[in-house]
Write a structure and sequence with these properties.
Layout (H helix, E strand, L loop, with lengths): L5 E9 L4 H11 L4 E9 L4 E5 L8 H6 L6 E4 L2 H15 L23 E3 H7 L6 H8 L9 H8 L21 H24 L7 H16 L1 E3 L1 H26 L7 H10 L9 H10 L2 H13 L5 H9 L5 E2 L3 E6 L4 E4 L15 H10 L2 H7 L3 H7 L5 E2 L4 E8 L2 H10 L2 H8 L4 H10 L13 H11 L5 H6 L9 H14 L1 H20 L2 E4 L2 E6 L2 E5 L5 E11 L5 E8 L5 E6 L1 H23 L4 E6 L2 E7 L4 H8 L13 E6 L6
Parallel strand pairs: 1-4, 4-5
Antiparallel strand pairs: 1-2, 2-3, 6-7, 6-10, 8-9, 11-19, 11-20, 12-13, 13-14, 14-15, 15-16, 16-17, 18-19
Helix pairs in contact: 1-3, 5-7, 6-7, 9-12, 9-13, 9-14, 11-12, 17-23, 17-24, 19-20, 19-22, 20-22, 23-24
Length: 663
């Protein structure tokens, strides 16, 4: 066999664990997890498929290469191949398995990610779809992913329902459908070929080397995982089941309905009681409760408790935790390809309910005790209490602590720095409150939190959150301005006041709009505010200060909803389908600011990678560490400004805790 410099790999596997629900770590750990097919190419050569299920052996040189840090391994969604092959290699060919762990860390079951490359990440970087099939279609590859794949995977890779027709078997094997198996082998081969074609097609636009270093850090964090207090999780599930049974019984008795969860039945009952509505979503129910007769409002309150969905995260924790009690694989690197930010997976830390209980520790103690009656006695709304306790299910290892640190107003700081909006920069330099300062600037009076004109701070906050990227009255409404007590007639004056207070930011929106339009229209390179915009090979590139680029596919000049000129590009729209998207200056500014904020967080991860970062949420890091690690040192390190954006005022704040929470 020739010397291996790099390989392209695709595998087909079986496990009784649901991959989508539980993630690859739990999937691969299952005792019945099995490698079926191993497709590979060496150094770009012909693709070979090893039929592992039928006894064919993977060459020793290939097995050895899997843990050889000098040999690059390519795959589409490489984390799946790396994690599954880590467990499989350790079980079946222990002499070829080598981890990158130290005794104090919890990554010991996995191959070193430093020599793995992911063409899915490459697609994400280039603004392309994140599925192999869709990416191949957009790129117009000669060898597309075979459409039979999903049916074949359902047939061979997942348990099947036992029936008389299939002899009551719970799994389909090659001998049950030899022709399908031959097609499955061809499908595996085609996937490797398609993945290699993507590499070839994108070879003119290589991913920067530093991004692969970032990917390695991301994979290490996913491998490390975060521990879960399973006693608390199990009790929460039991409390939830008991509470829902009681709520359902009360609601049935109150309404006389067979199924009060049915929208049709419930809206009918409401109509019979003089309350008409077409919707029972969260906002509609909240509004109805305010105006409905007392007995109807009580029923709606019960139904709202019954519909509390966030407690489902406890079930996700139980189903997806690994054998050592840790959750893994919760972060998708480059999950948002228009900014490069992470996307949440499995338990979805990015959308955990906040905790506002004054006695969070006491509520957690009651849940840990398993005393459901005491929980009911002390807390009127059990589902809401369980929801607020979800964060506290994440715990450090015994004897350790969490340090939770996050950036203060990171997007506002970046936007202010790029636009040189001096009054805002002075606020950050002097450690001021941007919401108070914004309100003061807008209304020309002093504003202090809990002090003089303190009632205006809320208006400053809602304006800051809604208006920085070109938003107007609709953005204020979407941010909940009316629910917070603002009147409809106040919204436009608020928009005007904010824009008048931030002329440099407003100018930045339209400077970016002109720079993007000129670059696309003239197929040239433009620049504004130290951001470079260039049109190359049918792509729009926005070069960020970090050296990373945002990429927009097939940009062209189109027409917006008002009949004016705008830039359009191809991407995944709100319907999650590949489509042409209209954009304009403020939206590009939002992408730029969020992307730079992401790069600053990544810089902090890089400088703190010697610590055990076990999770991150938006602009926040969660570090598992010994009791004597200094919180101040972590915050100081995290708050250091990257060399590529000198002069930006950063600040990181944090706290220590024995279980995760919002401070």
């Amino acid at each position: 066999m020739e010397k291996i410099d790099y390989m392209s790999i695709d595998i087909e596997t079986f496990s009784s664990v649901d991959l989508k629900e539980c993630g690859v770590y739990r999937y691969a750990e299952s005792p019945d997890a099995e490698l079926l097919l191993f497709g590979y190419s060496i150094n770009g050569g012909p693709v070979e498929v090893i039929d592992v299920k039928n006894g064919e052996k993977i060459p020793d040189e290939v097995l050895s290469a899997l843990s050889d840090e000098d040999i690059i391994k390519w795959a589409f969604n490489a984390s799946f191949e790396r994690v599954f092959l880590s467990i499989w290699l350790d079980r079946n060919y222990e002499k070829y398995f080598r981890s990158y762990s130290i005794n104090e860390d919890t990554v010991g079951s996995y191959l070193d990610p430093s020599s793995w490359r992911c063409s899915k990440i490459w697609c994400a970087y280039m603004g392309l779809p994140l599925s192999l099939e869709d990416a191949g279609a957009v790129l117009g590859l000669d060898k597309q992913k075979m459409k039979e794949g999903s049916d074949l995977i359902r047939y061979f890779c997942k348990p099947c329902k036992p029936t008389k027709a299939n002899g009551n078997r719970e799994r389909n094997l090659p001998e049950h459908a030899p022709e399908k198996w031959r097609t499955f082998i061809a499908y595996n081969k085609r996937d490797v070929e398609t993945e290699m074609s993507i590499q070839h097609k994108l070879s003119r636009f290589p991913v920067p080397d530093f991004l692969w270093d970032e990917y390695r850090i991301d994979q290490e964090i996913n491998d490390r995982g975060i521990a879960v207090d399973m006693d608390l999780v199990e009790n929460a599930i039991q409390f939830d089941m008991k509470c829902k049974a009681e709520l359902m019984a009360d609601l049935k008795e109150m309404t006389g309905l067979e199924n009060p969860n049915s929208v049709q039945q419930m809206t009918g009952w409401l109509a019979d009681n003089g309350v008409k509505t077409d919707s029972l979503d969260k906002k509609a129910v909240a509004s109805l409760i305010e105006t409905a007769p007392e007995h109807v409002a009580d029923a709606l309150k019960l139904r709202r408790q019954l519909a509390k969905s966030s407690v489902s995260k406890y079930y996700a924790m139980k189903d997806s935790r690994c054998a050592d009690g840790r959750e893994r694989g919760m972060f998708q690197f480059y999950g948002a390809n228009r900014s490069g930010r992470w996307a949440g997976r499995i338990v979805q830390l990015q959308n955990l309910p906040q905790n506002h209980l004054d006695d969070l520790a006491a509520a957690r103690s009651v849940l840990k005790s398993g005393d459901y009656e005491l929980m009911k006695l002390l807390y009127e709304n059990v589902p809401d209490t369980l929801s607020q306790l979800i964060r506290t299910a994440f715990v450090p290892r015994p004897g350790d602590k969490f340090i939770v640190a996050d950036f203060s107003s990171i997007e506002a700081r970046v936007l202010s720095f790029l636009t040189n909006e001096r009054w805002r920069l002075d606020v950050f330099k002097n450690g001021g409150d941007i919401y108070c300062a914004s309100a003061s600037q807008m209304f020309h009076v002093p504003v202090e939190k809990h002090g003089i004109n303190g009632h205006l701070r809320q208006k400053g906050k809602i304006a800051e959150l809604a208006l920085g990227y070109g938003g107007s009255c609709g953005a204020l409404k979407a941010m909940g301005a009316l629910d917070m007590g603002l009147q409809g007639e106040e919204l436009q004056p608020l928009v005007t006041a904010w824009r008048n207070s931030n002329p440099n930011i407003v100018s930045f929106w339209w400077d970016v709009d002109r720079a993007v339009t000129e670059a696309v229209k003239l197929h040239t390179t433009t620049e504004t505010h130290s951001i470079e915009f260039s049109y190359k090979s049918g792509m729009l590139f926005i070069l960020l200060p970090s050296g990373r680029s945002l990429v927009y596919v097939k940009p062209r000049i189109g027409e917006n909803q008002f009949g004016g000129e705008c830039v359009t590009y191809e991407g995944v729209g709100t319907n999650k389908k590949w489509t042409r998207i209209n954009s304009y200056g403020p939206k590009f500014v939002e992408n730029i600011v969020q992307a730079i904020s992401r790069d600053i967080l990544m810089y902090a991860m890089t400088t703190l990678q010697h610590c055990f970062i076990c999770a991150h949420v938006h602009d926040e890091l969660i570090i598992e560490c010994s009791k004597n690690m200094s919180l101040e040192a972590v915050c100081e390190q995290m708050g250091r400004t990257p060399p590529w954006i000198r002069g930006l005022q950063l600040r990181a704040d944090g706290f220590e805790c024995e279980w995760y929470k919002k401070d």
